[in-house]
Amino acid sequence: MAKKVYAVRVGRKPGIYHTWDEAKAQVDGFKGPVFKGFTSMAEAEAFMKGGSVSSGAAKSATVKNDIVTAADAFQNLQKVTVEDGGKYNILDSQIKEQCIDKVALITKAFKTAFASPVSIDDISANEDVKTLMSRYGCDFDSVSSDVNIAFVDGGGDKVGANFESTRILFGVVFYNAEESKFSLYRYALERGTDFDWLFRASNVAGEELAALFAMYIAARLGLKQIHIYQDNNLPAKYFSGAFKKIHKMDDYMLQIFINASLQYLKQGMEINFLYVPSEHASYKDKAKATKGKAVYESQDIPKVAFEMAEFLNGVSDRLADYKN
Q1: Do 128 and 215 belong together in one domain?
Q2: Where's the Ribonuclease H1 N-terminal domain (predicted)?
Q3: Does 33 map to a domain?
Q4: In this structure, are residues 175 and 143 in contact, taking their beta carbons and an 8 Å threshold?
Q5: Are 70 and 270 a contacting pair, CB within 8 Å?
Q6: Same-domain status, 245 and 151
Q7: Domain that holds residue 18
Q8: What's the CA gap between 317 and 313, in Å, rounded?
Q9: pTM of the shown model
Q10: Which range is least confidently modeled, 5-9, 93-97, 152-156, 209-213?
Q11: What is the pLDDT of residues 62-92, one digit of tens each?
Q12: How far is CA 159 from CA 58, 156, 194, 272, in A?
């Protein structure tokens, strides 16, 4: 893991903790906490004394991001409204009823995708993935994580005059920490089928599908915790409460995503979203890479090293690539 020591300067019981669970207990629900994770005790002690941290650490301990506890996410999601010729709470029976048949279709797609994982050997032989391995010095055997993680991506081919898509794709790179095992998944939904209702916002729908599929995988594996890494932070915005409403009644995918997330949270699954910079964008623009890494490192939650995050994010992007 990238961080080993957690310093809580303002919290229920300020101090230095050696596990995230211990530190989390001091800051969850505490108003205005100030805390940060470090890779050395010296940095943690300097932080506790109010001193500066080394250049390898984030400059601020209170950088805003979308990291929230599962309990806070549960409360935030319940408050989302759908506003289109009226105002409906996300839990309203009318919202649920209009999505029943669509939920069944998505569940069927998830079952099919889960039953047909992508071969790790095949993806490792992909020239783009070989390039990623060389670029970041990582492969599937070099991950180190004590928590279950999923790197997710989705999108469409956007071939029409108005950027309509003929397919929506989603990909998930899933790591089961209990078994130290990777599983890769990819699925495509075709236009002109029962999924036409998804194509109103095809790119975002793919991201939401991928994130929801990661939760589905965790549930199927009997796991009670998942960290979802995503370079499109829309789902995280709803979890954090930054976004509180859905603008269109026909945005069925987002309604399904939120209601399904609530069910997983209600059943006791610990779900966290982490932002990871787009590997494509970071590689092309060094300024974006620098800024993206700073934001990534500011997220005070156990996570994989930045280079590993970019590698796995790149793999999830290739899984969701319509060209493959």
Answers
A1: yes
A2: 4-47
A3: yes
A4: yes
A5: yes
A6: yes
A7: 5-49
A8: 6
A9: 0.79
A10: 5-9
A11: 345 688 889 999 999 999 999 988 899 999 9
A12: 40, 9, 20, 33
